[in-house]
Write a structure and sequence with these properties.
single chain, 323 residues, mainly beta, Rieske Iron-sulfur Protein, Immunoglobulin-like, 2 domains
Length: 323
């Protein structure tokens, strides 16, 4: 071999080797093991899921399915409009003796329509059978009475259902939203005695000292407000004290989560002074602006009173802007 053909010392020529083809990502062994362990996991969830759900319940007492306390000062006066409690998904109705054939008392009315489960609003403006103020389902028109939610029209099979109510010694109510009784024509007779009806001999409970403002909650559903038309809505309150009560509305402002905050045109209180044990009304003039159809709005009303326990307070107004 000549010097020209001899390779230089220390230099090696690399030899290319073929790369073996990659194996399958999902082998038969992996598939079988995956199916086995998935089955074991599902079986464990099925066996342990119910006990774990019992030990660590998902619902709190104040949520739907548990007990909700309604303070005595949030119980509406007898014969007044029902008051909605959104957390408990019910309306609290206080029937006067003889109203809809009832001996009088309170009912917690489930807001779920007995037809297809739609949420039934209280419609203080709805007129039917020469009367104004009904529970009216927006889905298919089922209509229920003001006091005991008796079905009078529509495809629903029965009156609205009722929730269990117990009265405490201090006048507070305990509403068990997990104990539901199917509605029936007997709803008026299921009213739980309250106030004078619950006292021995039928005597009314003594009034508190001084003026005392009592309303059925702090959130009020004012129903549907037609677009372009001014309507009046009222919220009833009671003087639960033994001295005259004076209440005034300082201002009405949009709620933090308001869609518009622009539906209240005016407000006032009647009468200016409510006698001991008497009732008064907060009156609001509402008008839905053009272009706001089907929107739900919220406003906050700031109140002032001579009640030493509630010199200032706020209530929330909810209403839907309709056609």
């Amino acid at each position: 071999m000549s010097a020209k053909e001899r390779p230089e010392p220390g230099v090696r020529t690399p030899v290319a080797k073929p790369v073996p083809p990659p194996g399958p990502v999902l082998t038969r062994r992996v598939f079988i093991l995956g199916g086995f362990w998935s089955s074991m996991l599902l079986a464990a969830v099925g066996v342990l899921g119910a006990p774990l759900d019992f030990v660590w319940p998902r619902r709190r007492a104040a949520d739907f399915g548990g007990e909700l306390i309604v303070p005595a000062d949030q119980v509406p006066p007898p014969g007044s409009e029902p008051v909605r409690f959104p957390t408990g998904r019910f309306y609290l109705s206080h029937l006067s003796p003889g109203q809809e054939g009832s001996p009088g008392g309170v009912l917690a009315i489930h807001q779920k329509c007995t037809h297809l489960g739609c949420t039934v609003p209280w419609r203080p403006d709805f007129q039917f059978q020469d009367e104004t103020g009904w529970f009216r389902c927006p889905c298919h028109g089922s209509t229920y009475t003001k006091g005991a939610a008796i079905l009078v029209f529509g495809p629903a099979p029965r009156p609205l259902d009722l929730l269990d109510v117990q009265v405490k010694e201090n006048g507070d109510l305990v509403v068990n939203t997990g104990a539901i009784t199917k509605g029936s024509p007997e709803n008026p007779l299921r009213a739980v005695p309250y106030g004078a009806a619950a006292s021995p001999g039928g005597e009314a409970a003594p009034l508190a000292a001084g003026p005392r403002f009592a309303a059925g909650g702090d959130t009020f559903d004012l129903g549907v407000v037609p677009v372009g038309e001014t309507v009046e809505r009222s919220i009833e309150f009671r003087n639960a004290g033994d001295a005259p009560l004076a209440v005034s509305i300082l201002k009405v402002r949009p709620a933090p989560d308001a869609a518009c905050g622009c539906g209240v045109e005016g407000f006032r209180v009647e009468p200016a002074s409510v006698p001991a044990g008497g009732n008064g009304r907060l009156l609001f003039d509402l008008k839905a602006p053009e272009g706001m159809e089907s929107m739900t709005d919220k406003m906050v009303a700031e109140l002032e009173s001579n009640d030493p326990a509630k010199p200032t307070l706020t209530i929330t107004l909810i209403f839907m802007m309709g056609p």
